[in-house]
Amino acid sequence: MPGALVGKTMKSITATSGGSHTCAISSDDLAYCWGLNTNGALGNNSTTRSTIPVAVSTADVLNGKTIKSISVGGVHTCAIASDDLAYCWGYNDRGQLGNNSTTRSLVPVAVNTADALSGKTIKSIAAGNWYVCAVASDNLTYCWGYANYGQLGNDSIVDSWVPAAVSTTGVLSGKTIASISAGNNHVCAIASDNLTYCWGSNGGGRLGNNSIVQSNVPVSVSVAILREKTIKSMDSGNSFNCAIASDDLAYCWGYNSTGQLGDNSTTQSLIPVAVNTAGVLSGKTLKLITSGGSQTCAIASDDLAYCWGNNAHGQLGDNSTTQSSVPVAVDTTGVLDGKTIKSITAGDSHVCAIASDDLAYCWGYNNYGQLGDDSVTERLAPIAVSTTGALSGKTIKSIVTGTYHTCVIASDDLAYCWGLKYINEWGDIIQNSLVPVAVITTTALDGKTIKSITAAGYRTCVIASDDLVYCWGNSRFGNFAQNNTIYSSGSCTPGTPYCDFPWAVDTSGVLNGKTIKSIGTGLSSSCAIASDNLAYCWDWSRYSFGDYIFDPVIPAAVDVSGALSGKTFKSITGGSLHTCAIASDDLVYCWGKNDYGQLGGGSIDLSSATRAPVAVFAKP
Questions:
Q1: How far is the CA of 215 from the CAs of 201, 210, 383, 391, in angstroms?
Q2: Taking a C-beta distance cutoff of 8 angstroms, is the pair 273, 600 a contact?
Q3: In this predicted model, what pLDDT tens digit does every residue of 125-157 receive, in sequence order?
Q4: Which of 129, 171, 189, 254 is the most buried (most CB within 10 A)?
Q5: pTM, to two decimals
Q6: Which residues contact 135 (CB under 8 A, 6 or more apart)?
């Protein structure tokens, strides 16, 4: 690990809410930061950005102290030190450093304890865009900094340069605070009654109180919309999601321009809607569901496949190009005659399945060879994937699809892929493969077999026989991991954003000492559930104000302080710019971009993203 962190491991990490820097606590219990530093947010007594971690200064107020907790705001940073007091550094134009001034500081300064925090220590801290909130030793909340949206919760929109108590005269009367989370300009807390309360900006309904009006004091999160069912399996597409519930029927939510929600409409939905069962699914239940670019497919109780949504390239497999907002049957008069379907996966505009003969069949868009039939001919009905080359004599155990490529685990427990292989930064095709080729095993995967595989976008990840994660591709390069010399090899080394051979996902930080149980990839992120049953994500794992915050190799823990408090993870899946997971309560939680209601919480947000998981609701 370069620079100041040589020889150290990571205990916790926090990524910026609205700016461009990251901070972590290392094994020496000190703080290290990296990224943009225009106003001293790195705390190293400079304004020079750093592309590697630098130590936060301990020359003044932090002298002799260690760091217990750290939180990153837009252009400032705050921490709790070993004396259980709060210290902040960076930009201070709205008093967000809490030291009774508006003067920025390039090194940590002590948060004021002469007034509201007199005699109190700090238990937890959360930095928003230009403000900070903390839970003190009295189990109440105190905030300081920018207040224009009521985010200080003290019934005022006047900035406070020192901590001010959040109002407890309304819905929080008699209650204490268990945990707190700060958004861009709003705050949510779990109180001692195990219910959620929020205050501040309410654009898109983020306060959850069935309103879009900001609140300068805490309000109760509405429970009028109730979850009716638990979730058995789910998948995410491009700005939409679909799930099979405990009644063995399908429900979808989010973007719906081509009928991908399957509810006989093209109207987007902010909450789950039932997939139509009046036609070909009449009397049938569903066993497995997969969502692609703008189509959804499922395996029903008759062990046959049904699809709905966009069909411009034949990806519904019904031997037509007519889109359908209700399920249609995948054609079984050709190569699938007499066969049933065991597994199914949807790519951007193509779909592949494993049939009862343990071979692979694909249909839809084929411009890059992603159907694997040694052609670039679009197929409106299933065709057999070639078994004359690398897959000769092998059967298929698992299959996944990326945007324009497909990968499998074969009966030899190794990975094989086909379709788009390389494109350059101008989008020109450099190479593809029209038939399956073997993924290279002479680098990080040497001597290992493959236990599970996932693909999305231009990336593929696997869990190997050592129960660790290995990935390749990412964005436009190296979908196949064949270690070819074409284009990407000149800049590709293990751990770089674009790699044409497998590299091990970093385990020196939050994944230290953990093994991996399952993985899920989306266009914007890769995520894993580890042996502690918690989730960790990397790549384009956050979306902020139209800009990607990109960390291709360092996993970060998914926030479990809010809606997921006390819960663990059972499965996880990625969409275009959002991620969803099934938690231990068998309910779905999503986070990320919410411009089409794909988070399923009954709201929409065109301007930014939800960085902490929110619960997906069904109709009451």
A1: 7, 12, 57, 61
A2: no
A3: 999 989 999 999 999 999 999 999 999 999 999
A4: 254
A5: 0.62
A6: 122, 123, 124, 125, 141, 177, 179, 180
